[in-house]
Design a protein that fits this description.
Layout (H helix, E strand, L loop, with lengths): L7 H27 L10 E4 L3 H15 L2 E2 L9 E2 L7 E2 L1 H11 L13 H8 L7 E2 L8 H12 L2 H10 L2 H11 L17 E3 L2 E3 L2 H4 L23 E2 L1 H20 L3 H21 L1 E2 L4 E2 L1 E3 L5 E2 L8 H4 L5 H12 L34 H13 L3 H21 L18 E2 L2 E2 L11 H10 L4 E3 L4 E4 L7 E8 L2 E8 L2 E6 L3 E5 L2 E5 L2 E6 L1
Parallel strand pairs: 4-5, 16-20
Antiparallel strand pairs: 1-17, 2-3, 6-7, 8-11, 9-10, 11-12, 13-14, 15-16, 17-18, 18-19, 19-22, 20-21
Helix pairs in contact: 2-15, 3-5, 5-9, 6-9, 7-9, 9-10, 13-14, 14-15
C-alpha cells in the first residue's frame, strides 16, 4: 500500500484503520476455520408430506441461524447467537425471542447462554466489548428463561439466575426504577428513555422495539414532526413487566420456593388488575395505550395489545374478543395475518408495510400465536400459523434473493420496506421463529413440550404422514410419526404423549398406537 503525502497524524490514522480492518478479517477467517459445519443430527428433523417445501424452509432457517452463531473476545458468553442486524451490537428483545427456536438444538445454538451477555454487564459489573443497543428494550428475560426451563428441565440454570444471582428479579426492579439518561460505564449502549409512573411507563417506539410505530400520534397521521406522545403510557411495557413477574413466580414454584412464588404472584396480580382497569376498552374489545393524565385510551390498534393476553391477564370473554381482531381481515387477519398495525388504521401502509406500520414481523406473530394458545384457541392459532408460513414460503420461492427476511409485506410475497429501503435479508435472527418454532408447534402440532412433567402435547390435525424425528427435551430423544391412522413413537426414555387430549404412555424403544 502506497500512502499519499499527508500530515503524519492523518497517515497514522489511516494505518490504524487498515490494521484494525486486517485484524477483523483475520479474526473472521480464524473463527470460520474453527467453526464446524452444521450438524443436522443434533437438530429435530420434521416430516410433513403435505408440503415438503416447508421442510426445506425449516432447514434453510437453521443454516442461516448457524451463520449467526458468533465468537467475540472479551464478552461474558462466547459463542452467542447474533440477531443478524449488526456485528457491533446486541439486542435484548431479539436475543430473548431467538431462544425460542434455539431451545430445539441447545447443544449447537447458545440461545439461553446468550442472555448472560446482558446479565453480566447489568448486574455483575463486568466490562464487555459487546455493545448493548438499547438497555430499556422489552423486559423478556424471565419469559424466555421459563420457556427454556420447560423444554430442558435445566434446574441448575434457574437456581443460578433466580436464587443465586437473582438476575430476573433485579431486572424487574431495574425496569421499574430506571430514569432517562442513566448510563452504564462498563458497556457501550444507547441512551435510556424509559420512566415509570403510577399507572405505567413512558417509553418510545425504538425502545419498545416497534421503531416507527404510529402509536401515540398527535394529529390524524403520525409524522416525523409528530412523534410518539410523551404523555402516553405503553400497554406493552406494563404487560411485559406482568409477564416477567408471572414467569418468576412459576420458576420459583419449580424450585419449590413457596415464599418467592407467593411474592411474585402478588406482584403479577397487582399489575394484571391495573392493566384490566386502565388499558382495556370493553366497547372495542381490545387493550390500548393510555394518556398519562386523562387515562383516555389512545386508539391505535397494534399487536402490542396482545402482550396482556400472553401474560394471561384476560378473562375468557376478553380473550374471545381479542381473537376476533386476529380473524378480522380488516384488522390483523386476512390471507397474510399478524400485520403489526391494523389494516383499518390511517397509518397502515398496504404496499410494503413500512416496517412497523403494517409489516408482518415474526416475533410479534409468535407472541400472538402463543397468546391464543394460552386460552385454548389452538385451531385459531394453527390456522393463522399456516397462513403465515405460506406467506414466508411463497416469498422465499417467488422473490429474489431466495432467503428469509427481517419482516414481510402485508399483501405481497415480498419483504417489507423501511421507508425507501428494503429490509434485511438472511434474518435468522428472530425470523427463524416462523420456519422452526411455529412450524413445529403449530403446523406439525407439537404445541406444548413440558420436560418437568415429562409430557408432549400434540394437536394432530393433518391427514398425510407427518411428525418429527430426534426431538430432544429434558433427557428424552424421541421420534413421533403419524401415518394412515397409526402413531409410531421411538424413544430412549419413557414419557407421556397427549394427542388431542388422549394420553398414551410411551415406553423406551418402539411404540405403536392406533389413532
Amino acid at each position: 500500500m502506497i500512502f499519499e503525502r499527508k500530515p503524519l497524524k492523518k497517515r497514522l490514522k489511516q494505518m490504524k484503520k487498515l490494521t484494525s480492518l486486517f485484524t477483523l478479517v483475520m479474526l473472521v477467517v480464524a473463527v470460520s476455520a474453527q467453526k464446524p459445519a452444521l450438524d443436522k443430527k443434533q437438530i429435530p428433523s420434521p416430516v410433513f408430506d403435505a408440503d415438503t417445501q416447508l421442510v426445506d424452509l425449516y432447514w434453510k432457517a437453521w443454516e442461516l441461524a448457524w451463520d449467526h452463531v458468533k465468537y467475540q473476545e472479551n464478552v461474558p458468553q462466547s459463542p452467542y447467537i447474533d440477531e443478524a442486524f449488526s456485528d457491533d451490537w446486541i439486542w435484548i428483545w431479539d436475543t430473548c425471542f431467538m431462544m425460542h427456536f434455539c431451545k430445539y438444538a441447545p447443544e449447537l445454538f447458545p440461545g439461553i447462554e446468550s442472555l448472560d451477555n446482558f446479565y453480566a454487564p447489568f448486574y455483575d459489573g463486568v466490562k464487555t466489548s459487546a455493545a448493548i443497543h438499547i438497555l430499556d428494550n422489552p423486559p423478556l428475560f424471565a419469559w424466555s428463561e421459563l420457556a427454556y426451563f420447560r423444554f430442558t428441565n435445566d434446574t441448575e440454570r434457574i437456581k443460578r439466575v433466580v436464587q443465586q444471582k437473582q438476575y430476573l428479579q433485579k431486572h424487574f426492579q431495574w425496569f421499574n426504577s430506571v430514569r432517562p439518561g442513566v448510563k452504564l460505564e462498563n458497556v457501550k449502549h444507547y441512551g435510556v428513555c424509559l420512566e415509570k409512573t403510577a399507572d405505567g411507563f413512558r417509553w418510545e417506539g425504538g425502545r419498545s422495539g416497534m421503531d416507527n410505530t404510529p402509536r401515540g400520534r398527535r394529529g390524524e397521521k403520525a409524522t416525523r414532526e409528530r412523534p410518539n406522545n410523551p404523555k402516553m403510557l405503553w400497554v406493552d411495557a406494563i404487560s411485559q413487566q406482568g409477564l416477567a413477574a408471572r414467569s418468576i413466580a412459576e420458576l420459583a414454584s419449580a424450585l419449590n420456593d413457596k415464599a418467592m412464588a407467593k411474592k411474585w404472584d402478588k406482584e403479577y396480580n397487582a399489575i394484571a388488575e391495573k392493566v384490566n382497569k386502565l388499558y382495556w376498552n370493553s366497547i372495542d374489545g381490545i387493550y390500548y395505550d393510555i394518556h398519562e393524565e386523562s387515562k383516555a385510551h389512545m386508539k391505535c390498534k397494534t399487536l402490542a395489545s396482545y402482550w396482556p393476553m400472553l401474560a394471561q391477564m384476560c378473562s375468557k370473554k376478553q380473550a374471545r374478543q381479542m381473537v376476533a381482531h386476529i380473524q378480522n381481515p380488516k384488522e390483523f387477519g386476512g390471507n397474510n395475518p399478524w400485520v403489526t398495525l391494523a389494516r383499518s388504521d390511517a397509518d397502515f401502509v398496504a404496499e410494503d408495510g413500512n416496517y412497523w406500520r403494517g409489516a408482518v414481523w415474526l416475533p410479534t406473530a409468535y407472541m400472538g400465536i402463543k397468546a391464543l394458545q394460552n386460552y385454548g384457541f389452538i385451531n385459531e392459532a394453527n390456522e393463522s400459523a399456516w397462513k403465515l408460513l405460506q406467506h414466508m414460503k411463497n416469498t422465499y420461492l417467488d422473490y429474489t434473493p431466495h432467503t428469509i427476511w427481517e419482516c414481510y409485506s402485508p399483501n405481497k410475497n415480498e419483504p417489507a420496506r423501511h421507508g425507501s429501503k428494503r429490509v434485511r435479508p438472511d434474518f435468522c435472527g428472530w425470523s427463524a421463529l416462523g420456519p422452526i418454532s411455529i412450524f413445529i408447534e403449530n403446523v406439525l402440532g407439537f404445541y406444548n413440550v413440558d420436560a418437568p412433567k415429562n409430557e408432549v402435547h400434540w394437536n394432530l390435525h393433518h391427514k398425510k404422514r407427518h411428525g418429527i424425528k430426534q426431538l430432544r427435551f429434558g433427557k428424552v430423544i424421541t421420534s413421533i410419526i403419524y401415518e394412515k391412522g397409526e402413531i409410531t413413537v421411538t424413544s430412549n426414555k419413557s414419557y407421556q404423549l397427549v394427542v388431542n387430549g388422549k394420553k398414551y404412555k410411551v415406553g423406551k424403544g418402539e411404540n405403536r398406537f392406533r389413532f
